[in-house]
Each structure stands twice: as structure tokens, then as C-alpha cells.
Write a structure and sequence with these properties.
- The structure is a single chain.
- It contains 10 helices and 5 strands; from the N terminus they run E-H-E-H-E-H-E-H-E-H-H-H-H-H-H.
- It is of the alpha/beta class.
- It folds into 2 domains: 125 residues, Response regulator (Rossmann fold), CATH 3.40.50; 65 residues, Winged helix-like DNA-binding domain superfamily/Winged helix DNA-binding domain (Arc Repressor Mutant, subunit A, Orthogonal Bundle), CATH 1.10.10.
- The protein has a 5-stranded parallel β-sheet, sandwiched between helices.
- Helix 1 links the parallel strand 1 and strand 2.
- Helix 2 runs parallel beside helix 3.
- The protein starts with a strand and ends in a 6-residue tail after the last helix.
- About 4% of the residues have low confidence.
Length: 217
């Protein structure tokens, strides 16, 4: 059972998401919160698998709530998915850096919401191809160096796997591209996350862009 915490200051959004998720046999909404401070308390109480958190809220906003969840060892199993009205706005990259596993726009289709919760529960990053392209565009305009990122500690195959993660490929797709098993692909990715101190695949994507490992070309 995938346990979900909803954190949004709009009651209508919380009620709508709960109604959709509660229809699924493998998903349970365990709690709701109207701001980040209450969300943090409920996350510690219920230890959900997924926390769907609005990016802009009173008291403690979504970015700060994400940062605190990521920094709390007791909440290491909580995957934060940011909710936004705007797609890739100025705050989303900050949220990914803070430890978010990805983000969703609030007008998402019902079937996509359910699919996204399951994807996040598996530990995969929620980064749509259109968002990935815009992230790449930002880093092409402002290239950074690999110095200090830890990329030098990766093997060549781990670097290849990280680059493919950054391009939005799933484990199965990465395995096919690298001509290896899915289990081996997952091993490369997990080792890369450990070496780069990345909390999840979303942070791995950000590190790939920041280091220059991935460019638009």
C-alpha cells in the first residue's frame, strides 16, 4: 500500500486529490495538512511513502518543508513531490535541489496523478521531457563545471547511466541502450547516487546538468 500525505493550503485541491487517490486499491491518503509546518508534523507522525506538497504556502512553504524532510533521517523513506500551478517556475529547481523527487502541475489528468504517485513511490524522478528540456536550456545558458561534484569518482558506465537518467530514460530503457540487464542498470544508478550523495533520481538529474555531464547537444 502506498501511503500519501497531502499538503496544500487549498481545501479544494486536497479534497480533489484525496477523492481521486482513494479510488485506488493500492493507494491510501493517510493525512492532510494546510501548511508546511503542519505537514512536517504529520510526516513525522505517519511516515508516508509520498508527500504531495504545494510549493507556495503560508508559515512554511513547500521548498523549506522539502528541505527539512530531506534533512531528517527519520523521514528518509518519504518521497516529496511538489505541486505547482505553473509548471517549471522559478521555484521548482530550488525544490529539486532541496530534495524533491519531482513535481506535478495541479491541473494534471486524474490517470496521470495516480501513475505519478506510483512512479514516485518506486523512487523514480517525476521530470517530464518538456521540463527536462527547459532545465537543459537553463544550464546551456549558464554552464557550470564538474569541479567538486564528485563525478570524477564515477566509473565510465556509471557516468553513462547518469546521463541517460538525465535524459529521462527509465531503468528498462537505460538497460536496453547500454545493452545490460535492468538489474545492472539499477546498480549503476544506485552506486552513482551513493557516490554523488544524491537523495534520489531527481537530484541525480540536477547534478548531471550542473556538472556539464549533460548538455542539449
Amino acid at each position: 500500500m502506498i501511503r500519501v500525505l497531502l499538503v496544500d493550503d487549498q481545501q479544494l485541491i486536497r479534497s480533489g486529490f484525496r477523492a481521486l487517490l482513494d479510488l485506488e486499491d493500492d493507494i491510501e491518503v493517510v493525512a492532510e495538512a494546510a501548511d508546511g509546518r503542519e505537514g512536517l508534523a504529520l510526516a513525522r507522525e505517519h511516515l508516508p511513502d509520498i508527500a504531495l506538497i504545494d510549493i507556495q504556502m503560508p508559515a512554511v512553504d513547500g521548498i523549506e518543508a522539502t528541505r527539512r524532510i530531506a534533512a531528517d533521517p527519520a523521514l528518509a523513506g518519504v518521497h516529496v513531490v511538489i505541486l505547482t500551478n505553473y509548471g517549471l517556475d522559478e521555484y521548482v529547481l530550488d525544490a529539486l535541489r532541496a530534495g524533491a523527487a519531482g513535481f506535478l502541475v495541479k491541473d494534471i489528468q486524474p490517470e496521470d496523478l495516480v501513475h505519478s504517485v506510483r512512479v514516485a513511490a518506486r523512487g523514480d524522478a517525476l521530470l517530464a521531457p518538456s521540463i527536462t528540456r527547459r532545465l537543459i536550456d537553463r544550464y546551456v545558458a549558464q554552464p557550470l563545471t564538474a569541479s567538486g561534484t564528485g563525478l570524477q569518482e564515477l566509473t565510465q558506465r556509471e557516468r553513462e547511466a547518469v546521463a541517460l537518467v538525465a535524459h529521462g530514460l527509465s531503468n528498462d530503457q537505460i538497460a536496453a541502450r547500454m545493452v545490460i540487464s535492468t538489474a545492472t542498470a539499477k546498480t549503476h544508478i544506485n552506486r552513482a547516487m551513493t557516490k554523488l550523495h544524491a537523495r534520489d533520481r531527481a537530484q541525480l538529474v540536477v547534478l548531471a546538468y550542473e556538472s556539464g555531464l549533460v548538455t542539449r547537444g
